[in-house]
Amino acid sequence: MDERTIPVLYLVVPCYNEEEIIEKSAQVMSDKLRRMIQEERILEGSKVMFVNDGSKDKTLRLLHEIAAKDSIFSVVSLAGNYGHQSAILAGMMMARKYADVVVTIDADLQQDIEALDKFLASYMAGSEVVYGVRNDRHSDGVFKKGTATAYYKLMHLLGSKVITNHADYRLMSKKALNALAEYKETNLFLRGLIPTMGFASDVVYFDVKEREAGHSKYTLSKMMTLAMDGITSMSVRPLRMIAVLGILVCLFSVIMCIISFVDWLQGNNVPGYTTSLIVSLIMGGVTLFSLGIIGEYIGKIYMETKKRPRYIIDTFVWKEDVTQKGEDDV
Asked: Which pTM does this prediction carry?
């Protein structure tokens, strides 16, 4: 492998209703990039690229003000709210035009930005993808910690290569980003998709900080949606499990029929209310559960066949007073 040169780095920061923290985040991130430039870890021209994901508060106005004052900032504004995964993808696809490496990081400053030094060191050593993994989940509540642990175990059980405790804080090289651009599916689950690409990768551990302002935008419903997208986008094992479950239920039904027939031959005409009720409940529950899983997959197929864009870029601000409207890089 050829020795790598100092790269141009872009930080891609998805934003949704972050007016309370965005100015502080911009200051912290620009200070870090400038220190890295001075230390000759990255080149001049490195930037912070904010991606506004249809914010309903003052986030977009604040981002435009920030970008107007300092050319180290760039702003991609999506036409609507397309979701966290699509916002990240939009930023990465735009940033790969200008950067040698891209790091995605949340706007709330909980992910330790000082870990960028380790990200860059791993990249310089040959990694194309570097995953940021939190050291622990002590900052989470009991419910979130328990559900997150169960989720990762389930994902691994279903065959997904998702990295445990990795939440989209990662570095990707231009080479890896160009390969990612070849993936066209509408149902995005980057945490599970990127590890399947096969590039040389590494893991950097970091501590999660307390949120300095505002509140988490990841509601329970959004976490459930992400979890379901992860399961149905990266594995067909639930469908296979339904087939196995169907076989087991059929065997159980055959056994119950044999038992009932033997009782009838022996003259034991038991009314069988309890047995009938249990069997009916089991069959009804299994049927509805199976239809629900199959419905999720059919819904995903339906969305994929539409070939709709995963995001639409409304405005793009880069350097000073450069705005391109209607640019779409899906």
From this structure: 0.74
